[in-house]
Amino acid sequence: MSKIFKIQFSKMKPVFSVFLLILFSIFHCKSENLEKENTDNNPYEFHIGGVLSSNASEDYFKQTIEHLNFNTPFMKPGNTFYAHSIKMDPNPIKTALNVCKQLIVRRVYAVIVSHPQIGDLSPAAVSYTSGFYHIPVIGISSRDSAFSDKNIHVSFLRTVPPYSHQAEVWVELLKYFNYLKVIFIHSSDTDGRAFVGRFQTTSQNQGEDIEKKVQVEAVIEFEPGLFHFNNQLNEMKNAQARVYLMYASKLDAEVIFRDAADRNMTEAGYVWIVTEQALDANNVPEGTIGLKLVNASNELAHIYDSIYILASAITDMNRTKTITPPPADCDNSGAIWDTGKTLFEYIKKQVYKDGHTGKVAFDNNGDRIYAEYDIVNVKEVDNKDAIGKYYFNNELNKMKLRLNESNIIWPGRLKKKPEGFMIPTHLKVLTIEEKPFVYVRPLKKEDGNSCKTDEIMCPLYNTSAKEPIVYCCKGYCIDLLVELSETINFTYSLSLSPDGQFGNYEIRNNSASGKKEWNGLIGEIVYERADMILAPLTINPERAEFIEFSKPFKYQGITILEKKPSRSSTLVSFLQPFSHTLWVLVMGSVHVVALVLYLLDRFSPFARFKLINADGTEEDALNLSSATWFAWGVLLNSGIGEGTPRSFSARVLGMVWAGFAMIIVASYTANLAAFLVLERPKTKLSGINDARLRSTMENLTCATVKGSAVDMYFRRQVELSNMYRTMEANNYETAEDAIRDVKNDKLMAFIWDSSRLEFEAAQDCQLVTAGELFGRSGYGVGLQKGSPWSEAVTLSILDFHESGFMESLDDKWIFQGRVEQCEDQEKTPNTLGLKNMAGVFILVAVGIVVGMVLIVIEIGYKKHHVRKQNRLQLARNYGQTWRAIVQKRKMMRMHGRTSGVGALSLSVEALPRSVLNISPIRSIETLPRTCRNSPSPTRAWSGRQMVHRKSDDIPLRSPIGGPPQLHFHNNLM
């Protein structure tokens, strides 16, 4: 069923879509018709009220509305505008009553209000009264910042900008003149606070160029109606900035200009930029630059633009919205007019490009934007000349500043633009201990009160100790500081970092608001407690946002320091030239060849030959023991004294084995030199991309310094986040601690600036940097934002690079000529020591011990064998004695029976002739004659053959190794 339903639905889908389209069209037509019916019911008459300052303004107001009724682009057919105006009363209460009695009763849709000639509260009274019913009010002359507050003036708009909008023009002027450090002076009223707030916001949001942001060195706030300004001026005179931005009323400005002139702060070298009110002061100094709103006092032009803006908004609303009648009575009506809210939003959206006062538009607060200003220069008290204009550029579609700088007269009647700051000649310079850039040692008593000639005194900065320890500093940065001071002519006082850190942006422990603050060297510069940092300070975006850097005096990067992996000299180091498999094969080959040699020599028919000697004996074939001795002797290149192969086949194999031994020994000798003498291991890590660094599972510890530029680099790099989390717990407070642990094998890898690590590697040849540089950056001189020394320091550093001065500092402090020593040491072979060859000596010692053990075993075995032989010999002697006695007795018995002579038959084993001398036979004469004449007993009796004549013969056999065995036969004669 579901399948059938899907098929049917797919067929009905186009029909369903058409049906929905028809329904939408019907509802759309109905809604349009309904809206048309609603707009058709809108009124055709629109009353506009005016609270103006003069009769002339009232007449112009009425004439403009009458002219508007004939201006068809702004009119919907049949609509008519009517003008109702009253004159502004200085009394705000009367003004409010007049609005109710003469304007609201006429059901006005909006009110255009001017500024009174005397008094300031009447426009506010009109705004309060009309705003209660949400009747829009368009001001044409009120510029107070209070009217921007929509919580109070809910339906107020104006065709003139508030005074605080001049801050945008000020920022453009400062950027044009390249004044990036200023002092802001303002009254403590609503307009003054709004002015400084808008200035700070605008100055920080002008473009993306960080170096062009304006920095406020000090904000001087004063109460309106002051009598003197001496204390504030003394504070301003001690500051570096000489550019003063002032928002003040005419009366307050006269007091400030008077006291400033008494201190010569209106003369050459100072810059005053003021607002419109202060520009009207009677004693405004020559060279002051101020602003003047274009058409600020042209009330008629603002009336014209206001009417046309209002008519355009009503026409737009009349076409699309339902309009309800405005309230008609202030006494009985208390309801809010909803159409008034809608009309207010429509007016804010209007843009009138061809207005008499320029392009008219409003921001979200209903304040005029795109207002144009004249840039005014005070050449004399009564001569205020326009030197430029801040206007709307139609091509760029934004406001643009145009100045004729050649026409400007600066304070002191100078034509040249002042620098805008006081350049201090004595600077507070901070540094930090970091070899080889800064070496620090405490000043000893024997040194007196002064450091050595190549050192500079550098106490701890801002320390609270009663008797602070005085240090002496020298190094790369100290030499650079001395050269800079001589080149660009400044004096200095050098101090060490108070907390021993470069600077980290973090939340302070005592900060309840959780606001981040800088510590270390960076904090001292940011909070203007020091003027310059001359240390190995890495340039990075986090720091550059708060302080200013010179061009790098040394380019470097980040690298890894580790200890060279020493070759482990084990007891079997001499076995390293061959693999374990090859050693097993060589050992097996010796015994296999020995076995084959034995077999070839054993079964070869030519394996024996007669020796040329007297007895004609033959030499035996090669036995297995001699074959093994021969194979080892050839392999170890030792002389072979005996036991050589005799057959041709065995000798051929012996020659092949000798060739094999020559190749094996030569290869071993060559590889032994490479392994124990020439090879020097380099590094264990390949660089930052090494898998062991990236993996948290590896037992490899790496670290950097907390809060350093390297630490910031790892925090920025997303791909290194896993590695950073692993190393974060291992980070050190100082680089010295980390380098010490690397030397002591407590830390495997230290990640730090390449300059420092290259220095350490040059000092200690056991240390080495691994991989290529990454995170390339440079060391720069740190200065305050807008520091007058920035350009001079940068130009000097560039000159030092070109002249070779920086290169000489590298050779003197970083490399120190020790790189060549390490390289020479790398090229020279290692000297073999006991660690390398201990296994060989131990092998000899083992051979000696084994030989001694074997000789003890042999001696014991020999003694045991001799005792056994002695016992056997004793048993033979007793046996022979017994046989002799028995034989004697038998012979005696036989002699008694017969009278004939007994015949003796002698049978002897085939033994050497000398053995017969120890025969128990007393005399050879007792033997028969035939036996005595026989040349050799060996030939007389072969083997163990015995002749038995009688069964009662008594054989006399000799044991092994004993005298010959004689057999006596008794023959009856």
Identify the strand order in the major beta sheet: 7-6-8-9-10-14-15-16
Assign the CATH class of the domain at 45-160 and 298-369: Alpha Beta
Terminal residue distance: 143 Å
- Kindly state the number of beta strands: 34
Q: Which percent range describes the beta-strand content?
A: 15-25%
The CATH topology label of the domain at 45-160 and 298-369 is Rossmann fold
Helix/strand-derived category reads alpha/beta
Integer average pLDDT: 79
Q: Which parts are unreliable, with pLDDT below 50 for 5 consecutive residues or more?
A: 1-37, 899-973
Could you name the CATH homologous superfamily of the domain at 45-160 and 298-369?
A: Response regulator
- CATH architecture group name of the domain at 45-160 and 298-369: 3-Layer(aba) Sandwich
**Helical segment tally?**
28
Write down the overall geometry: elongated
Helical amount among residues, as a percent range? 40-55%
**Sheet bearing the most strands, described?**
8 strands, mixed
- Based on CA atoms alone, the radius of gyration comes out at 59 Å
Domain Ionotropic glutamate receptor C-terminal: 453-816
InterPro entries: ANF_lig-bd_rcpt (IPR001828), CaM-bd_C0_NMDA_rcpt_NR1 (IPR018882), Glu/Gly-bd (IPR019594), Iono_Glu_rcpt_met (IPR001508), Ionotropic_Glu_rcpt (IPR015683), Iontro_rcpt_C (IPR001320), NMDA1-like_ligand-bd (IPR049872), NMDA1-like_N (IPR049873)
Domain Ionotropic glutamate receptor L-glutamate and glycine-binding: 460-527
Pfam family, one: CaM_bdg_C0
